[in-house]
Design brief:
By secondary structure, this protein is mostly helical. It has eleven helices and no strands. The radius of gyration is 19 Å and the shape is globular. The protein starts with a helix and ends with a helix. GO terms for molecular function: ABC-type transporter activity.
Length: 250
């Protein structure tokens, strides 16, 4: 299994990022442009961001975890479709395809986040300290949640093709309600009561707590995110285990 997973990862690296460094340059450049755009737009309208005084850091700590979740969930959901020709071989299983995509894309995003935020610290000479345990915990939750959503959608999107369109429509508002451009604490109580059930709110809040020592984020519930992610993942794995052969025959 490890050799198969590594082979699938190398195949995806060549397919998704190309055989040169240019593909990985774009993997870094794309989030940099996203953070820069948010920083410029909101610095024109606001005197200061929700935390601290540095716009790029505030929006990077919200946008980058959100981008990691979105990309990981989408690519995990497309695992069977991406590796369909190879899944015809008995030595390659749907678990190999899922694991290869999860590991490669999670590691890629962690590296990109380190490069982008490290670059912000260097460019603006920002002081520390950074609570690395909170940062790693936030990224682990994002990876777990993205995997859980992706695994379940891997079944649903293959079993019911219309679900892919429905899912993309339903998740369009996520950017606005996941703590990317605002703090949960700044919202009215009625909105907080609803937004608390969005697991991404907990991920972005924990990420920001790692970079802002005075930010307590008392609303966080890591247990909620873990329980939801595992429930989605187990449901998806059970459905795939039972139906993956039928899906491959379509």
């Amino acid at each position: 299994m490890p050799r198969t997973v590594v082979a699938l990862m190398l195949r995806e690296m060549a397919t998704s990022y190309g055989r040169s460094a240019g593909g990985y340059v774009w993997a870094v450049l794309e989030p940099v442009l996203g953070v820069a755009l948010l920083s410029v737009l909101f610095s024109m309208a606001l005197r200061s961001p929700g935390l601290g005084s540095n716009f790029p850091l505030f929006y990077a700590t919200g946008y980058l975890p959100f981008a990691m979740f979105t990309d990981l969930a989408n690519k995990t959901a497309a695992s069977i479709r991406f590796s369909r020709p190879l899944l015809a071989y008995p030595s390659v299983t749907f678990l190999d395809a899922l694991l290869a995509r999860v590991v490669l894309n999670a590691l890629t995003h962690v590296a990109v986040i380190a490069i982008v935020i490290g670059g912000i610290f260097l460019a603006y000479q920002l002081p520390g300290p950074v609570d690395m345990p909170s940062v790693f915990e936030a990224l682990l939750l994002v990876a777990l949640l993205g995997t859980g959503v992706g695994v379940l959608n891997c079944y649903l999107m293959n079993a019911f093709p219309v679900w892919e369109r429905v899912w993309h429509i339903l998740t369009r508002p996520l950017f606005l309600i996941s703590g990317v451009i605002f703090l949960y604490d700044m919202m009215p109580v009625q909105a907080q009561n609803l937004l608390w059930y969005n697991p991404l709110i907990h991920c972005t809040g924990l990420m920001r707590r790692g970079f802002y020592p005075t930010y307590e984020a008392g609303y966080l519930s890591q247990a909620y995110v873990v329980a939801l992610a595992l429930a989605l993942m187990l449901a998806g794995l059970a459905l795939l285990e039972r139906n993956h052969r039928k899906l491959l025959e379509r």
